[in-house]
From TrEMBL:
It comes from Amphimedon queenslandica. This is Uncharacterized protein. The lineage of its organism: Eukaryota, Metazoa, Porifera, Demospongiae, Heteroscleromorpha. GO terms for biological process: nuclear mRNA surveillance; poly(A)-dependent snoRNA 3'-end processing; rRNA catabolic process; rRNA processing; U4 snRNA 3'-end processing. Residues 14-133, 138-199 form the Exoribonuclease phosphorolytic domain. The keyword Transport does not apply. It is found in: Nucleus.
Length: 222
């Protein structure tokens, strides 16, 4: 069976991304990422010795906690925890740290759209800041489809409310799909269109991570 991927060429519009590393002093790695008015802070703790009840002999155990703006977790936060946990399990080389535990805490400080994208960028920056071994870097982009068939990238909350479907793609440095999150009604053509756009942004996110780490290293050398 041959799968045909449609290559989509379009201008990918995105709000500016800002990142500050080491924002949580007690964490082994941390980052605060701002994308427009959406702000997420992430802290990574470990690897540390795991409790016997949770210990795995062949790899590290990864636990992710997502906190909302109000601080009260609900079904949506639990859904996000599963998504971020899957991402961590896929991208962290957990087999290099058997018998240990890695904890990730993600705090949503302000949600003005595309919050999962902001979470993914904060997570990757925090893992890099903690010097944890990764298969590669990863990033995300959100596509919102409107009733007229047009597509928006990096939608705000107001734009999300008018969308018929919302697709968030988590991709690695080479543009390969790691995970995705979807809401609303969409067809295969729309999914593939969004994935093609997401894959095309991978190289730009790699440059963003490189520049972020370089800025921190420059400050350390000073």
């Amino acid at each position: 069976m041959n799968i045909i991927r449609h290559v989509v060429t379009m201008e990918v519009k995105s709000r500016g991304i800002e990142c500050e590393l080491g924002i949580i002093t007690r964490a082994d790695g941390s980052a605060q990422v701002k994308q427009g008015n959406t702000i997420v802070t992430c802290g990574v703790y470990g690897p540390v010795e795991a409790k016997s009840a949770r210990e795995k002999v062949d790899k590290a155990v990864v636990e992710v906690i997502v906190k909302s703006e109000t601080g009260l977790p609900g079904p949506y936060e639990k859904e996000l925890e599963l998504l971020m946990s899957s991402c961590c399990e896929t991208m962290i080389l957990t087999h290099l740290h058997p018998h240990t535990a890695i904890s990730v805490s993600i705090q949503i400080q302000s949600d003005n759209g595309s919050v999962i994208v902001c979470m993914v960028h904060a997570l990757c920056c925090s893992l890099l800041d903690a010097c944890l071994p990764l298969k590669t870097t990863f990033s995300a982009i959100k596509c919102a489809f409107l009733s007229d068939g047009s597509m928006l990238t990096d939608p705000t909350t107001q734009q999300e409310e008018t969308a018929t479907s919302q697709l968030t793609y988590i991709i690695d440095r080479k543009g390969k799909l790691v995970a995705s999150h979807a809401t609303g009604s969409f067809d295969t053509e729309e999914y593939i269109k969004g994935l093609s756009v997401a894959s095309s942004t991978a190289v730009h996110r790699t440059d963003f991570y490189r520049e972020t780490i370089s800025r921190k290293m420059s400050r350390i050398k000073q």
